[in-house]
Design goal:
six-stranded antiparallel beta sheet, five-stranded mixed β-barrel, 37% strand, globular, 2 domains
């Protein structure tokens, strides 16, 4: 049964005021999901979940407290508000805590333009099982594949946010997904790889057969992997994992890290952090994309912004609280859940694409490593020192020779980001669109 999330948030705000809160915001979330997992030709797991959760943040002066519950009865909402107010009275004082001013909040938006929810009916379990089995069958159709694990899922999440300063808004978001993991070989010679796709609309999903076949191809390409040599070599980060490099940049410019002084880019505002040909743009208004949203977690209107322009870092990622700590306005990047206060986070990200293909970059790199997967991470948040386990393919003379694994890539993120060469293969449907990236002079530890 659908719930009136807007009424729930208004009830929470009313109870918070009655309990003695000076200000409050309330979040109500309704979630529905189902998933099917296939393993070795058998149905391994079928799950379905439904639930409603509410969260309340109350403020008394510079003190705040957050509480949440999955029981939405009137008595629970009243007790929730009373407990939140009691907790806030004991919380430490923070002068940067507070709601948005009424003139800051979003006043209107065209939700239909965002296209965030598939209007078609929820898929049946039989439909999801069919998708998973089709992906499994396609992977097993490749000679050498010994085992496949396939999954298909669907979810819908409705949310509504309201504040005591006058904001009220909500939206729904849907997700369809199919994935497959394929295995080849046995014992210590076993290799695995995967493929998966997710979209807001079922009509935009690739065929399950294509997903399964790609998982098999990637796995078979990894058969017979050895360790690469140790030394300094160029590394080409495949499009599948290249976004992690830009993710480290985004983490370093997060206002929470900057306010703590715990970022290797804490003194880089207005400085060059990427090659002058590259920019990083955030656009939370891209239609039919998972990271899009009309307003942030504090009710501020979202907008397109240039984070890095022609290599120059132009600003931090801020919510209201971190903005106040740094003496800057919020960039409308607040994100939050029902049980925690807002914190800064980015949405849809684009890195400038290059003109060369991945094959062109392979040719240009000569001898080095093409990385297709990574495990573990040791990133020093203060210095930017970087070390990650990797696997992929060894390249000589611009030609892929053989698969490699069990190696470590090391460098410093500040230097790495200044020596990026992008390809032109970013996937248009992704929230974070980053192409394959060539980085010169990294240290490999292998054989």
């Amino acid at each position: 049964m659908p719930h009136d999330l807007q009424s729930l948030t208004q009830s929470l705000l009313t109870e918070a005021k009655r309990a003695g809160a000076e200000g409050a915001d309330a979040l109500a979330v309704s979630g529905h999901s189902q998933s099917i997992d296939i393993r070795q030709g058998k149905l391994e797991q079928a799950e379905r979940s439904e639930g409603v959760e509410v969260g309340l943040r109350v403020l008394i002066g510079g003190r705040q407290a957050c509480v949440s519950a999955s029981d939405i009865s009137a008595a629970t909402l009243a007790r929730l508000a009373e407990r939140a107010v009691a907790m806030a009275r004991e919380a430490p004082d923070d002068p940067t805590v507070g709601l948005a001013d009424p003139d800051q909040i979003a006043q209107g938006w065209n939700l239909a333009a965002f296209d965030l929810a598939d209007p078609t009916e929820e898929p049946t379990p039989q439909t999801l099982e069919s998708h998973a089995r089709r992906a499994e069958s396609a992977a097993l159709g490749s000679a050498g594949i010994t085992q496949v694990e396939a999954s298909a899922g669907w979810s819908r999440r409705d949310m509504h946010l309201a504040t005591s300063h006058g904001f009220s808004g909500g939206y729904a978001r849907t997700s369809h997904s199919t994935s497959a993991v394929a295995f080849t070989g046995t014992g210590t010679g076993m290799e695995r790889d995967w493929a998966g796709e997710g979209r807001i609309f079922a009509a935009d999903m690739p065929l399950p057969e294509d997903i399964g076949a790609l998982a098999a191809l990637r796995t078979l390409e990894r058969a017979g992997a050895t360790k690469p040599p140790t030394g300094a070599y160029p590394v080409l980060f495949d499009e599948r994992i290249a976004s992690s490099l830009i993710g480290h940049l985004l983490s370093a410019i997060n206002g929470a890290a900057i306010a703590r002084g715990a970022s290797w880019l804490r003194d880089a505002l207005g400085q060059q952090v990427l090659p002058h040909t590259l920019s990083v743009i955030e656009d939370p208004h891209r239609p039919r994309i998972a990271g899009s949203r009309p307003f942030d977690g504090e009710g501020l209107p979202t907008s397109r912004r240039v984070i890095v322009e022609n290599g120059i870092l132009t600003g931090w990622t801020l919510d209201l609280g971190t903005g106040r700590k740094l003496g800057m306005p919020s960039t409308a990047n607040a994100s939050r859940g029902t049980s925690s206060p807002p914190s800064p986070a980015t949405s849809n990200i684009d890195l400038t694409q290059g003109s060369a293909s991945r094959a062109d970059l392979l040719r240009d790199m000569g001898t080095g490593l093409l990385v297709t997967s990574m495990i573990g991470a040791t990133i020093n948040p203060t210095t930017g020192d970087y070390s990650r386990g990797a696997s992929g393919f060894w390249v000589e003379g611009g030609v892929v020779l053989h698969p490699v694994n069990e190696c470590t890539i090391a460098g410093n993120l500040r230097d790495m980001l200044m020596h990026l060469t992008p390809a032109n293969d970013a996937k248009p449907h992704l929230s974070t669109r980053v192409p394959s990236l060539l980085v010169e002079g990294l240290t490999l530890a292998g054989a």
